Amino acid sequence: MSDIVKSKIRQLYQFLKEANQLRFRPVRLLSEQPKVVRLADMPNHPSMQLFRPVRTEDAEDVPDTLIRVRRPQLTRCPEPPASLQGWLLPNWDDPTKQALYAASQNATDDGGETMTIRFDDDPRRVADFRAWSEQRKAWVEPEMLARKAMSFFEVFYDIYSAIEKDGEELELLVADGHFLWQAVSGSDGTVAINHPILLKRVELRFDANIPEFTVHETDREPEIYGSLFPDLTDVAPGAIRNRKTELENAGYHPLGWDDTEAFLKAFIQTVSPLKGEYLDEIPREGPTSTPRLYRDMVLVLRKRIAGIANAVDAIIDDIEQQTVFPPSLVQITGTVTEWENSGLGDSGSGSGALAGEPPANGFSDDNILLAKEANDEQLQIIRRLERKGSVIVQGPPGTGKTHTIGNLIGHLLAQGKSILVTAQTAKALRVVRDKVPDVLRPLAVSVLGSDQDARRQLESSISSITERLSGDTAESLLQKAQRFESERRKLLTQTRMLSQKLREALENEYREIAVGERHFTPSDAARFVLAKRNEYSWIPSPVKLGALVSLSDQELVRLYALGTSYSPEEEQDARHPLPELTALPSERQFQVMVSEYQHLTTTDLKPGADRWRVTEQGSESLEKLANDLAAEFSDDLRRQAWRPYAIVAGIHGGTEREVWERLIANIEEAAEANARHALILQHRPRLSDAMPVYRQRQVSVEICEHIDAGGKLGFLQLATRSEWRQFIKTTSVTAGQPNHRDHFEALGHLAELEHLRASLELPWNTMIGDRIQQPLGALGPAPELGCRALIPEIRRCLDWHASVWAPLAERLKAEGLKLNDLIATLPREASQISEYLVIERLASTILPTLLEKEAGRRKLRECEASFSRVANLATQVDPTSPGSGCIGRIIAAVRSHNPEVYTGALEYARRLHAVKPRVAERDGLAAKLALVAPGWAEQVAHRVPPHHAGKLPGDVGMAWTWRQLHDTLAERDKLDAHELQRQIDRTRETLRQVTEWLIDAKAWGKQLERLQGNHSIRQALVGWLDTTKRLISTKQLDKRHLLLSEARRLMKKCADAVPVWIMPISIMAESFDPASTRFDVVIIDEASQADLNALIPLYLGKQIIVVGDHEQVTPLGVGKGQTILENLRKSMLQDIRNSHLFDNLSSIYDIGRQSFGDSIRLVEHFRCVPEIIAFSNQLSYEGKIKPLRESNSTDIKPACVGCRVDGVREGDTNKNEARRIIDTIKAMIRHPQYAYKSIGIISMLGEQQALLIQSMLHKEVSGVEIEKRRIQAGISGEFQGDERDIIFLSMVDSAATEGPLRTTGEGAFELIKKRYNVAASRARDQMWVMHSFDPDLHLKTADIRLKLLQHVRDPLASLRAYNQEVGRTESPFERDVLKRLTDAGYQVKSQWQVGYFRIDIVIEGAGKRLAVECDGDRYHPMEKLAEDMERQSILERLGWQFVRIRGSAFFRNPELSMRPVFDRLGELGIPPEAATTEDPNSDMTLIHELDDLIRNGFEGENDTVDVVDVAEMTGTDFSNDNDEVGERILTSDVFDGAQVEALLSEMGGKALRDAFLRQFAKTKGFQRLGRNVRKGLETELDMLSRKGRILIRGGMIRLL
Predict the structure, then answer these.
(1) Residues 6 or more apart from 63 whose CB is under 8 A from it?
(2) Residue 1101: strand, helix, or coil
(3) What are residue 86's phi and psi, to 5 degrees?
(4) How confident is the model over 1086-1111, as pLDDT tens digits?
(5) How far apart are CA 387 and CA 353, in angstroms?
(6) Whole-model pTM?
(7) Is 1498 exposed, middle or buried (0-12, 13-18, 19+ CB in 10 A)?
(8) Which sign, positive or negative, has the C-alpha torsion 1305, 1149, 1116, 1127?
(9) Residue 323: enclosing H or E segment and its boundaries?
(10) CB neighbour class for 1024 (10 Å; exposed up to 12, middle 13-18, buried from 19)
């Protein structure tokens, strides 16, 4: 399996080698190099100097500066005398041409006649011409030389510009030893060679302040141009190698003298020992079959290709030695399965985890160490790198790719990793090192083309490393790192906790407060609390938040009413245990007790005492017994004379009792018959008088049975039954004669009843009726019913002795009465009822007296016991307070035997008994209330006003709502968002500092840990530093060569000590040996521009981060040799996955996208103001880019400028567009608003327009300005990865007719769209689009140029659509806050746009700003809170300071809630300032001012010339400009401002300050604007400004 992986990787790099050979053919003709300068052509002018090695006795000294080319001073032709004015022909001031005059002129005399005047008619004129010609002749020769020097200077400017553009692709060489030969190539056949073979890398520097170009020595060895010879059939490779070895040892310099010449002579003999010729002069003919070599020193600008080829060869060789390959290459070649199955790859996290599982080392976000502000995308990159090892990052324009890479470097260094950051071009890498955290910057070396800068950085890095090695140890640093890491984890935990609290605090401003069914926003709640404080604040705190009142309205009314239903004293006494009232004698009882006690103590209770035994029975039972006896022997019962007979019958039983039982039965039977008769009364039956009653009953029964049997009562039936017939005739019913069964049944019941009554009459009258004088007949129509009423009493009497008397006798005995003895003493009479009479006498006459006396004796004892019991009640009921409350009163009353006192005490006890349940009820209600409102319950319980009046103080529902809202808000106040934010800020700042310390300690600790054990590297570090110091002072060529060789040898070891290298791919390929160099992480920036040679750094990296953007320009070599490369790809990569991407149309970013999985897109845009980036955002990114710059972050307005020029396209150039661009740049240079602004020009139609503009720039703009402002012209791809403050886009095209131009669409593979995306996203502050057509007339709808120009016309269209969707959500809350701030005098703006985001309120002053966020209104729903916090976090990373105002606090106490805002303003030093009314977004002032400067022809462009020169040129003496001038201006009587206003009005109401002052000085009569004149005039202007008549701002003066 490993062989498959190796084979495919080898196949990939073999293809790369072949592709490079196709792309980079060896340059055999010097004329085919990008730029060549013959040093022999250098003009002999003081501004030009060549420094060759100086000959000495022993050797040659090599100067550091080889060539010096200064810009020559050009002079003007001497002015001809006045007499020659009008006679000289054009170009008289051109030194390359002869000055001529017109031989004659026609003129008109006074009479109007034409006359001819000859030049030589005036001898004085002829003499003046001769004298002037001599002056001109003296000027011409040096001026011609100066202008030739100027041309030479411009050549160097072109070289410098090319290097500035493509320094990573180009190198400058000094060369000599021109080789001429018509040779035979093994691959190309017969070839012509005309090229120097001795080369040495040099460095071109430019000092814009002089201006001057200098060419300097570098540390690079001289080299033989080896690309000429490998495929030449007649050249022995071994011989060339020998010459190379000699050169390496001797170091012959191309500008050298004899040694160099000797080497070149030997070289030509090596190439062709028999035919080779060395020429002392430059031959006139070209290459021939004879190899020839001659000297002609040149500067050559060539492409860097040797390093690429060598690196690829080295990789191919190294592949054979390796068994483990970078995972990225495995993914690209599609051999992941074979790679995993073979167990290849490192086991560490990321480098071998292709399956996507999390790393085994427990990596978490806390392990991510970023020293600078970071967004979530940066964290995603690190996570994915740890998980997968290969990461693809899409970085749209200006989204902080460089910042991201710098942050990643800090994290990776802290992991002890080595890093290579590379790109196709150096532009993308220019500021990467600056983005590395300061403490780690010495660990990074940036090599971007300048050997001087690279050496300086390397020296600094190695110096820092050696210093650390001598001052620190790995152990101490790593121990520090452990402490910092522990502290950092604590800070991370604290930050998360504070952030959670902050979120909760902010959510509190949006989370509704529910009180019952009502819901309040916090702001509305605050308003309610403030407005209703006086009316509804009577419920005290605390209350249970979110709860309803635990009592109903009725219960609350009851609770308050109970508070006034008894006194506090009663409440207190009622809380004590109370005596049971049933256990106390009542008032009456007590009074009776007292009365009885007094009575009993005065009554003789001794009689009958001997009849009683001593018992514990009380008087009550005895009294009851006496009452029961009295009731049983009452007069009413005794008057019932029949009772004794029934009682005696009951005593005797037998027949006597049976007689009475029979009477009862007769009564009951008659009563039952009466009931049956009542059921048929509706028939009103009447019996016959002719038949006995008993016989009538029998007949009626017979008839009923006959009918029931089915019989009839017809004639036949009655004929045989005479009694039936008689019965029917003599009885009657309601219907007449009975004829129905019911009739006969009714007659039968009546007959039965009458029969039973007759049977009852005799026994009733005998046993009862006669004794009570109530016979049966006297008892009414239904006597049986009257008799029935006595049945219970009859039965009671029959059982009386056993059921009544016997129990009474037993009770008497139980009470202690000696009853049997007493009965035995009673006499008996001879009577039928004698037994009853004995009992009656005992019960009615004897027992009452005995019972009364015994009851008295008992009652006396009971009274005494009761008094004693009540007196001891305290110990029984409440031992803790026997003398208090009602018990004390009762005891006092009892002891005094005072009924009145006792009555009061008992009444108080009853009152307390009545109060006690109310107290308990009130306590219960209060306790129930205390569950939700303990404070309220307590105040009600203690009757604290207003809770003392017995009624509710107000509306309970509203008061409860108020208290709930108040306390909820107060509870939420405890989470103070402002203070939490301050704590978070402080914690984050501490965290940032600790993280920096941790990164510093870990990174340096890891590096020292790696270096301390390697003594050879330590020795190499010190040795290299010492060697480079000696090189500075060594000039001798041989010694310098030895030192350089030693430095290079030491450098190979020193390079391992530097963990971070930043260099373009071409330089990287020259610098590192793929066989011995490996980086833990390789980062490829601007990868969408990187061609297939980016596979070289991929080979060196264990982990890969590819940063690019498929929406931007692809490699600049697109389309070149595509067909040949396609054939090569098909033949060599047929089994490589996604092999179709390996062509000139694709970048390493495209390959990475297909191989490494989904990309991580950076979306935060930092470069452009929103108006500029909006075009690219909509064109290429579906509006997903978030611009974070604000429109007002720059004073350059407007952001987008469309400028139509009356230009014509000529080929691929448009001179008028170029002219307007140059003029506008020159105006910008003069305008103070554009000071220090960098400028770029992009041609949208090929590079010819860019070259034209660049040429014009060099001629018309000073080098200082070009250097300072980085003014450069190019095409889109050359600006990718770069930016400028101001960008000009030149459309070049123009309309030849009125018809539309050919449509420019997105282009094949969207190449045109990508170019426009890049071009339109380079400008930070302002983008100009120069065009020579009418977009509405000449462009079709689908034309991308129309889209661009429509955007320029209305750049905020997309943002405006967004704002219309979101709306200007200025809430009443914000308006209130805004008013308070403006009332305080601050300059305030609402809904401030910061790119993609908006801020509620921004306060400005003293150049500082404070963002104010208003939390709590429904304009900002809680659902958006997470976005809101993320927005604040992003803006804080941009440097914004925030303070938050909570609506719930503001609407309760506006002054208090605003205090943190004013405090923060004071801390930041933002003073109150008057607001300005200007609208910068629509201000076209700058454009008009630039137009004015262009129209005025850049008047005063040479104002920098000193005063003496001006005086000499004008012949005017300006020496009188003294202080008196200023005084004269200030004391002028005519100063009223009218002169200023009039002049400003003439100038259009506005003017540049300097231009106006010059004109104003002339108006005042001054010939020049000197220091004192300026002072006086500015004082006058300041006075007008204070009066509000003019505005002076930003270098401009405006008329108000």
Answers:
(1) 51, 53, 54, 217, 1035
(2) strand
(3) 90, -15
(4) 888 888 888 999 999 999 999 998 88
(5) 6
(6) 0.70
(7) middle
(8) negative
(9) none
(10) buried
